[in-house]
Structure to design on (413 residues):
């Protein structure tokens, strides 16, 4: 690489024509190794905060290329800086945990762990960032990295909550912008899906516990019914929220569990209703969380029961900052070609990256991984797999994102 990367203190950190030849050679040489790493991770998935083997693989790889990785205090997850001298710092993030699901694929690298599988592509995210780390380390050694790229291998995205560990460990200290890719099995390999503003929704758990005196179903007028109250809440709470928000806003209150009663002729003393509240707008989320106790109280009074509302705060929406999206767009044009860049839809799913982008400007992009001509799988399905060409394409993209982000940070200084 020394023949390709000549240190030049006066040169820009990002000169596409001068890095292209070296990057192509790097990708050609490391492709088989990276595919092997991805398949090993895929065959040995680890759930949230149990990613000890995965963490060790990351540490060993980064140490072998001359970097100094730091394991997060709870023992899983890694932060590692690629230092290119004085200058700004940007961050690239990958999540490393697996899902508590089964792998139904008939492939040699199928999960060997019962009840755990990489059905969301985090093994791919991790592998791409390792490949990116190696090339950035070569640039830094050659004097061509004017600034620092922080690599964040985040645990427990699926729990969620691992991003909080990164923040508590100082993982965002000094970071100007942060960028992340997420596999999209609906799009063909190499497609880059971008969106400014909210790309994923907030995620909060809602539990309502209704209690009454209980009684006989022959004489419901003598008591209050938790079942009637909870049924009313299922049908009325969402409608009441709809009346309080702009019809164009994205919000969703949906129920996943209801439990009440033991006998057909007995009105129970208590019952429970549990679900999730999801919002694309941070203000709508705050308003909904404020309104729900009032609405629950009104419906409980109407049905002569007491109601307790327990809200478990989860994740904010992931809101992409405009300049960071444009950095992704320009980097994607150079790495993938303009024809592979498009818009992506908003998702009502939650994403741990949101906690990081609450504190630092950044962008989450979707990255196509489906092999052309194959069926479309959704995330979290047992048959989920990727066209492994996505790995080197992702490295190419992340390298360009890092260099363009540093270059932009210098222009802002």
């Amino acid at each position: 690489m020394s023949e390709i990367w000549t240190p030049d203190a006066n040169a820009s950190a990002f000169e596409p024509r001068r890095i292209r030849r070296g990057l192509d050679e790097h990708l050609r040489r490391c492709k088989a190794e990276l595919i092997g790493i991805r398949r090993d991770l895929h065959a040995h998935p680890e759930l949230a905060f149990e990613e000890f083997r995965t963490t060790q693989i990351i540490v060993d790889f980064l140490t072998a290329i001359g970097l100094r990785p730091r394991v997060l205090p709870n023992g899983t997850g890694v932060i590692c800086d690629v230092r290119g001298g004085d200058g700004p710092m940007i961050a690239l993030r990958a999540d490393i945990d697996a899902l508590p699901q089964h792998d139904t694929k008939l492939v040699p690298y199928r999960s060997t762990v019962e009840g755990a599988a990489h059905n969301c592509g985090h093994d791919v995210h991790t592998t791409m960032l390792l490949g990116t780390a190696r090339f950035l380390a070569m640039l830094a050694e050659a004097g061509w990295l004017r600034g620092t790229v922080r690599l964040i291998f985040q645990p427990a995205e699926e729990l969620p909550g691992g991003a909080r560990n990164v923040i508590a460990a100082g993982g965002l200290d000094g970071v100007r912008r942060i960028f992340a890719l997420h596999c999209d099995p609906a799009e063909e390999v190499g497609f880059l899906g971008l969106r400014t503003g909210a790309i994923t929704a907030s995620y909060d758990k809602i539990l309502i516990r209704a209690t009454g005196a209980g009684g006989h179903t022959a004489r419901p007028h003598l008591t209050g019914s938790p079942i009637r109250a909870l049924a009313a809440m299922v049908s009325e709470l969402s409608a009441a929220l709809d009346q309080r928000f702009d019809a164009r806003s994205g919000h969703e209150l949906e129920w996943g569990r209801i439990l009440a009663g033991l006998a057909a002729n007995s009105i129970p003393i208590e019952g429970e209703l549990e679900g999730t509240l999801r919002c694309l707008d941070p203000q709508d989320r705050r308003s909904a969380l404020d309104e729900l106790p009032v609405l629950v109280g009104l419906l409980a009074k109407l049905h002569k029961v007491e109601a307790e509302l327990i809200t478990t705060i989860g994740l904010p929406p992931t809101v992409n900052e405009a300049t960071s999206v444009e950095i992704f767009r320009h980097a994607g044009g150079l790495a993938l070609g303009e024809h592979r860049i498009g818009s992506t839809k908003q998702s009502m799913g939650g994403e741990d990256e949101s906690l990081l982008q609450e504190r630092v400007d950044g962008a989450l992009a979707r990255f196509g991984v489906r092999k052309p001509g194959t069926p479309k799988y959704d995330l979290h399905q047992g048959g989920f797999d990727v066209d492994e060409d996505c790995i080197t394409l992702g490295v190419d993209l992340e390298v360009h994102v890092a260099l363009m982000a540093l270059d932009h940070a210098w222009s802002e200084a």
